[in-house]
Amino acid sequence: MASLTLDQIRLAPKVLLHDHLDGGLRPATVVELADECGYTALPTTDVTKLGGWFRGGAHSGSLVRYLETFSHTVAVMQTPEALARVARECAEDLAADGIVYAEIRFAPELHTENGLSLDAIVEAVLDGLRAGSEGTGLHARVLCTAMRHQARSLEIAELAVRWRDQGVVGFDIAGAEAGNPPTRHLDAFQYLQRANGHFTIHAGEAFGLPSIWEAVQWCNADRLGHGVRIVDDISVDVEGQASLGPLANYVRDTRVPLEMCPSSNVHTGAARSIATHPIGLLRDLRFRVTVNTDNRLMSDVTLSSEFATLVETFGYGWSDIRWFTLNAMKSAFLPFDQRLDLIDDVIKPGFDALAASAPGA
Fold it and tell me: Which residues contact 213 (CB under 8 A, 6 or more apart)?
């Protein structure tokens, strides 16, 4: 049977849970916004070369080097107009890729250099997402991210709760994991729990099992951003039989969603290659795995291209992409009835139609 093509996958109704707003700008937009705000530190103003520069920095195999590329995107996102434009174009690009639900995360504290308030920043992003989603079938929501090496996580958690009825559905912490454990932010996570809020935690990407253990057992994360290193608690014998350690068993048993970003994980050194990425094993073991983009600019990916890469590498078909998609929709921070509506009215019928139209169906 012929494998699925990128164009076919683009038609599927997909769900994206892990996508950074400041990691998904169009190169041309970076150049134009830099010119508008007088930012002169770009490595080049040639759009094609700039896109290549971002990819080169991201593909270094180092999470720290990967994160350095964000200094330029964040620098041109310091006004309400720039934030709204970037958010609008993000929604347009995701809708064009066949995504029907997306949670876009960004760190409001990184956009205050011109004196904008945190509330004004969130408002501008929500306005942009609404404008870009209108008439497309995309339902876009926001996660407010706090930087794990800073001390504003409680303030950002309160911001997320303040805006949760207007498009913000959760909270996240991000940034370099080593030396910045999630337990540094327990007050924020405890506040969110008391406020009945949802949150995900970047864990198990560049750091190992202790990061995941703290996120799950100390902080009670609803989801794990990446979670790649959970594989360190799984052993596979020469016959291919897997044995799960206590943490891996717990994560699987309790259906903790893993927001995996295969290409990004290779680029940051969290995985050696797509072929050896833990996603293949974790899918076989029926963990709650989801597929995501992380940073579309830096990794030069779309959600459809990520699925196409998995199809090529692991031989996946429509049933696998549907499985990943349903996992993501079930794990979204959208209210239950809205999740169910998208599953029953959009996702399942969409995949059924694609499978029925496949050769030999």
Answer: 247
pTM: 0.96
CATH of the domain at 126: 3.20.20.140
- Catalytic-role residue among 123, 205, 214, 259: 205
Residues ≥6 apart with Cβ < 8 Å to 248: 230, 231, 233, 234
Q: Each residue of 263-291: pLDDT tens digit?
A: 999 988 889 999 999 999 999 999 999 99
For the chain, the average pLDDT equals 95
Q: Does 20 belong to an annotated binding site?
A: yes
46: annotated binding-site residue?
no
Q: Identity (one letter) of the amino acid at 185? A: H
- How many structural domains compose the chain? 1
Q: What is the pLDDT of residue 332?
A: 98
Looking at the domain assignment, is residue 226 inside a domain?
yes
Query: Following DSSP, what letter does each residue of 51-112 receive, concatenated?
Result: HHHHHHHHTTS-HHHHHHTHHHHHHT--SHHHHHHHHHHHHHHHHHTTEEEEEEEE-GGGG-
pLDDT tens figures, 103-115: 999 999 999 999 9
Would residue 1 count as lying in a domain?
no
Q: Is 315 annotated as a binding residue?
A: no
**Residue 202 assigned to a binding site:** yes
SS3 label, residue 13: coil
How many angstroms separate the CA atoms of 68 and 82, rounded?
20
Parent domain of 214: 6-355
CB 85 within 8 A of CB 33: yes
Q: Is residue 15 part of a domain?
A: yes
3-state secondary structure labels for all residues of 199-266: EEEEECCCCCHHHHHHHHHHCCCCEEEECHHHHHHEEECCCCCEEECHHHHHHHHCCCCEEECHHHHH
Within-domain flag for 361? no
Q: For this structure, is 205 an active site residue?
A: yes
Residue 139 is labelled as binding a ligand: no
